[in-house]
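Let's practice the habit of predicting before peeking. Look at the sequence and jot down your guess about where helices and strands might fall. Then scroll down.
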Amino acid sequence: MNAMRTVLFICEHGSAKSVVAAAHFNRLAAQRGLAFHAISRGTSPDEVVHPVALAGLAAEDLAPATSPTALEEGDLTGAARVIAFSELPPAYRASGGMELWTVPPISEDYERSRSAIVAKVERLLGDLVVTPRT
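Done guessing? Here is the structure:
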């Protein structure tokens, strides 16, 4: 059996986009039996998960895996893929490259943002099955 590999989602506050992306990624990866697990991080984390993200996830019987957590260098080096929702500060550049995803703000329109995130997560999962980077 393959070891579980990590996909890292990063947003500025680690409390909305990255949290929603990680929750949906983990649900879909588990449904497909894939050996990937997502974590969310923030470059300047909030104290708590954004209430709109929390309510939206709860409506789908999903929950954030953790409270907002600061991004650390080890998160970047240990990830199979790194997805950011905004440009990262120079100190946090991923050596293996990073994808930048642009989606609408969760606080303005949860459903629109969620739909954009889930569509990108679906494509990412398909890509990971074909070309799983290390």
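How did you do? The first helix runs from residue 17 to 31.
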